[in-house]
Design a protein that fits this description.
single chain, alpha/beta, TIM Barrel, two-stranded antiparallel ribbon, 9 strands, about 15% strand, binds iron/sulfur cluster
Length: about 290
């Protein structure tokens, strides 16, 4: 793989390992709370994020830091707000919360995940202010550049919303990381590669990409559809081959933040191979990537 993995990028840039701390901003999502008149993205169970403790932000931070520090010699962290749409809420309150975190000495990077339709002028102003304190990364959901597929998946946004948000974010100099899902129902391999081509052609260039295999989860509209009539999902080998082609398309400057996901075991209907992250990474590393990845 010609691109850097996230850990390689962090070591090259900061000279040390930087660990992610998952935090909760308390935000919800306009695609889940009824604002958009929908019941969420078809694959979404609970915000599509790793577990993050809720409550006082200092407490969350200290608790997560203590846990990581038990196992590692971590000194600096990426404060990572992943679940739900972390720019959806009272902007003044969010500004206070993110400032508090950005001002912590141990925080090297503030990383905020959100939807393209949750980037407005007030949010841009806040992110610009925050980026004067610490580097800000915005993880922007794209999932697919296929408009019909985005509609069927009930995303509530499409590639044009993504471009608008992306341009506004790049204008203030924050790094943008796109999230993409492979093996979506009704999408061919070429459709997935078209999404990757769409990202590769953005100007200025996208800073990072997160790619993952679709997780079909119980209790989601996609899960219901799968139970009624299972659709085909890629095997690990097929996913690996497609990932390899995708990485060949992406520019060298793009940092590869991840190539797998962490499905919640309890809810996973398919594909079951995604549960074994170690085996998946070993395989992808050996046959697809040619080096370590997260
Ligand atoms: S944008 Fe994220 S939190 Fe909102 S419905 Fe979609 S996957 Fe769930």
């Amino acid at each position: 793989m010609k691109q850097l993995t996230l850990s390689e990028y962090l070591i090259n840039t900061y000279g040390e390992k930087i660990y992610k701390i998952s935090l909760s901003s308390g935000c919800t999502c306009p695609n889940r709370d009824g604002t958009k008149g929908t019941s969420g993205c078809a694959f979404c169970l609970n915000g599509s994020g790793e577990f993050a403790t809720r409550g006082d932000i200092d407490f969350q931070f200290e608790e997560a830091k203590a846990k990581i520090s038990e196992k590692t010699k971590a000194k600096r962290f990426i404060a990572y707000f992943q679940s739900f749409s972390n720019t959806y809420g009272n902007v003044e309150e969010l500004t206070k919360l993110y400032k508090k975190v950005a001002l912590k000495e141990e925080v090297a990077i503030l990383s905020i995940a959100t939807r393209p339709d949750c980037i407005n002028d007030d949010v841009i102003k806040t992110l610009k202010e925050l980026s004067l304190i610490k580097p800000v990364w915005v993880e922007l959901g794209l999932q697919t550049a296929n408009i019909e597929s985005a509609r069927k998946l009930n995303l509530g946004y499409d590639k044009y919303d993504f471009i608008k948000a992306f341009n506004a974010l790049k204008e203030i100099g924050v790094k943008v990381i796109a999230h993409v899902i492979f093996s979506l129902p009704d999408e061919s391999e070429e459709d997935s590669l078209d999404t990757v081509r769409f990202l590769s052609e953005l100007s200025p260039a996208i800073d990072g990409v997160k790619i993952q295999m679709l997780h079909v989860l119980k209790g989601t509209p996609l899960g219901d559809r799968y139970i009624e009539k299972p659709f085909r999902l890629y095997s690990l080998e097929e996913y690996g081959k497609l990932l390899k082609r995708a990485l060949e398309i992406l520019p060298e400057s793009v940092v590869i933040h991840r190539i797998t996901g962490d499905p919640p075991r309890k809810y996973l209907l398919a594909p079951l191979w995604t549960i074994d992250k170690k085996k998946t990474l070993n395989y992808l590393n050996k046959y697809t990537i040619g080096k370590g990845g997260k």
